C-alpha cells in the first residue's frame, strides 16, 4: 500500500513576521550580570574592526582609542534616538577608498616630517568627513530616505541584505589563511561551543552558547600567546609574525594609562572639495549597507521590519555619527557593525540593553588606554575566524526574506540571480584591478570622480541595490506586487500600520509627542 500523500502544510512552512527561537527580543532583557557579560562580548567583537581600520597610520593607538570612543557615543545615540535597534555603530571599510586617496594626495606626500604629514592627513580626512556627513543628515532627517524606501520590496532587499554579509567574504577565510594554526582552531571551537554544545547549561544558563565568543577567544588567545612565547615564530616571514604573534601589535607599551579623546584633537580640519566629493560616495555606500544591516538586525532582534520613517530617522542620526567621527578624527565614517548583528543571532539575544552596555564598555576602555590596548593585541586572525560564521549568519537572514516572495516566478528568479551575481562580480573586478594597477578602473584626471565611482562599485550591497531596485521597479512591477511580497511589506511601512511598531520603535522619554511618527 502506498504511503499517504503529505499534506501541503507538511511540505511548506508558513511565513513568519518575526523570527522565532530567540531567548530575548529587542525589549526583553537578560539579568544584569548576564547583560553586562554579553555587552562585554559585543565590545570585544567590535574591537577587531576598530584595530584593523587605522593599521596603515602613524599614531595608531590614539586613533583606535578615538574610534572606540566615538563608536560608543554613536551606538548609544542610535539605540536611544535612531532606529532603536540593537546595533553597534562601528567604523566602516566603505571609507577606505577616499581615505587612501587623501593619504596619497601629492600635497600631503610632499611633507617630509612624518608626524606633521600624519597630522595634516588627519585634518584633511576630518574636513572631508564633516562635509560628507551632510548627505546622511539631510536624507535622513528630511525623510527623503523614507520616500526612497517606497521602491524597496522584500524581493529587492534580499540581495542587498544578503550581500551585507556575503560581500565581506574577503575579510573571512583569506585572513584566516594568513595564520592557519590560530584561525582554524578558533573557527572549530566557536562552532562547537555555539552550536553543538548549546544545550549545555550551568545554573539554567546555556553558558557555552551565550558566551561562545568570549570563551573561544580566551582559549585561542592563550594558545597563540603560548606559541609566541615558545618562539614558534622566531624565524618565520614578517607577514606570518604580524598575523600570528600576540606581542607584535606594539600597542600596550605605547598606550597611555588615561587619555580622553576630544574634538579637534589633531588640529583644525582642512577642507578640499575633491576630498569631500569622494567621501560623499562613501557616505552613500554606508547609508545603503546600514539599511540592509538594520533590516537584518530587526529580524535577529525578533522585531518587525523598521517602518520607513524610523529607518530614515536612524540614517539621520548616523549622519550625526559621521559628523562626530569628523570632529574627533577617527579616520573612518560610521556604519552598522555587521559582525555584531551576526552575534545577536549566534547568542540568540537581541536585547537593546546589551548593546547599550557594550557602548558603555567602548567609552570606558577607550579612556583607559592600557586596558584597551591589551584587548587590542588579540591577533586579527582570531576575529576573521568568527567573521566566517557571523557574516554568513547575517547573509542568511537576508535570504530569509525570500519567504515573503514567490520564488516560482521567472521574473523573481531573474532579478534575484542577476543582482546577486553582479553584486559579487563587479566589486571583485574593481578589487582585482586595483590590486594589479594600484588604482581603480575609474582613472581620469579628476580625482574626485575616480574616488566617487571606485567607492560605489567596491561595495557589494550598493551594486546589488542599484541592480535589484532598478529591475524590480521596471519589470512588470504592476502585475507582480504579490510576487514581490508587497502585500506583506505594506503594513510595516507606516508606524500605525502594525500595532507592534509602537512597542519596538517608540522613542524614549515620551519624545514621540514632539516627533510624531508618520
TrEMBL record:
Signal peptide stretch: none
Cited InterPro entries: NCS2 (IPR006043)
Gene Ontology MF terms in the entry: transmembrane transporter activity
Cellular compartments annotated: Membrane
Ranges that cross the membrane: 40-58, 124-144, 151-169, 175-193, 205-224, 354-376, 382-401, 452-471
Keyword list, A-Z: Membrane, Transmembrane, Transmembrane helix
Cellular-component GO terms for this entry: membrane
Membrane topology: Multi-pass membrane protein
UniProt family annotation: Belongs to the nucleobase:cation symporter-2 (NCS2) (TC 2.A.40) family.
NCBIfam families: NCS2_1 (NF037981)
Protein name: Nucleobase-ascorbate transporter 2
Encoding gene (name): NAT2
Amino acid at each position: 500500500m502506498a504511503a499517504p500523500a503529505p499534506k501541503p502544510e507538511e511540505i511548506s512552512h508558513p511565513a513568519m513576521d518575526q523570527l522565532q527561537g530567540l531567548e530575548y527580543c529587542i525589549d526583553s532583557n537578560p539579568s544584569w550580570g548576564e547583560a553586562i557579560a554579553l555587552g562585554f562580548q559585543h565590545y570585544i567583537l567590535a574591537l577587531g574592526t576598530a584595530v584593523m581600520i587605522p593599521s596603515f597610520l602613524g599614531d595608531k593607538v590614539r586613533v583606535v582609542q578615538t574610534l572606540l570612543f566615538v563608536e560608543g557615543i554613536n551606538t548609544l545615540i542610535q539605540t536611544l534616538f535612531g532606529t532603536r535597534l540593537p546595533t553597534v555603530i562601528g567604523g566602516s571599510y566603505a571609507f577606505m577608498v577616499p581615505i587612501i586617496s587623501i593619504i596619497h594626495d601629492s600635497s600631503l606626500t610632499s611633507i617630509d616630517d612624518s608626524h606633521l604629514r600624519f597630522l595634516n592627513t588627519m585634518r584633511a580626512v576630518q574636513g572631508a568627513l564633516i562635509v560628507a556627513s551632510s548627505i546622511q543628515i539631510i536624507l535622513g532627517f528630511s525623510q527623503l530616505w523614507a520616500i526612497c524606501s517606497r521602491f524597496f520590496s522584500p524581493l529587492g532587499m534580499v540581495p542587498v541584505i544578503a550581500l551585507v554579509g556575503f560581500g565581506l567574504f574577503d575579510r573571512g577565510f583569506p585572513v584566516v589563511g594568513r595564520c592557519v594554526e590560530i584561525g582554524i582552531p578558533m573557527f572549530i571551537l566557536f562552532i562547537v561551543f555555539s552550536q553543538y554544545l548549546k544545550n549545555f547549561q550551568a545554573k539554567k544558563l546555556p553558558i557555552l552558547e551565550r558566551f561562545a565568543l568570549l570563551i573561544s577567544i580566551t582559549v585561542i588567545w592563550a594558545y597563540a600567546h603560548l606559541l609566541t612565547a615558545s618562539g614558534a615564530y622566531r624565524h618565520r616571514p614578517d607577514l606570518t609574525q604580524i598575523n600570528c604573534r600576540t606581542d607584535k601589535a606594539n600597542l600596550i607599551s605605547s598606550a597611555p594609562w588615561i587619555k580622553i579623546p576630544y574634538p579637534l584633537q589633531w588640529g583644525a580640519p582642512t577642507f578640499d572639495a575633491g576630498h569631500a566629493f569622494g567621501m560623499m560616495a562613501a557616505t552613500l555606500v554606508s547609508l545603503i549597507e546600514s539599511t540592509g544591516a538594520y533590516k537584518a538586525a530587526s529580524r535577529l532582534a525578533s522585531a518587525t521590519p523598521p517602518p520607513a520613517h524610523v529607518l530614515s530617522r536612524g540614517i539621520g542620526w548616523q549622519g550625526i555619527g559621521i559628523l562626530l567621527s569628523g570632529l574627533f578624527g577617527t579616520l573612518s565614517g560610521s556604519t552598522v557593525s555587521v559582525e555584531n548583528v551576526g552575534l545577536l543571532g549566534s547568542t540568540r539575544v537581541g536585547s537593546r540593553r546589551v548593546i547599550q552596555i557594550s557602548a558603555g564598555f567602548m567609552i570606558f576602555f577607550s579612556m583607559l588606554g592600557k586596558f584597551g590596548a591589551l584587548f587590542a593585541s588579540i591577533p586579527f586572525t582570531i576575529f576573521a575566524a568568527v567573521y566566517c560564521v557571523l557574516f554568513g549568519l547575517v547573509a542568511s537572514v537576508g535570504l530569509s526574506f525570500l519567504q515573503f516572495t514567490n520564488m516560482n516566478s521567472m521574473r523573481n528568479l531573474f532579478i534575484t540571480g542577476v543582482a546577486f551575481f553582479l553584486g559579487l562580480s563587479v566589486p571583485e573586478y574593481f578589487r582585482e584591478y586595483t590590486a594589479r594597477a594600484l588604482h581603480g578602473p575609474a582613472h581620469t584626471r579628476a580625482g574626485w570622480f575616480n574616488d566617487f565611482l571606485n567607492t560605489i562599485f567596491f561595495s557589494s550591497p550598493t551594486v546589488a541595490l542599484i541592480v535589484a531596485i532598478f529591475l524590480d521597479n521596471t519589470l512588470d512591477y504592476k502585475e507582480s506586487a504579490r510576487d514581490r511580497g508587497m502585500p506583506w511589506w505594506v503594513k510595516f511601512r507606516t508606524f500605525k500600520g502594525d500595532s507592534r511598531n509602537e512597542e519596538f520603535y517608540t522613542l524614549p522619554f515620551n519624545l514621540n509627542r514632539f516627533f510624531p511618527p508618520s
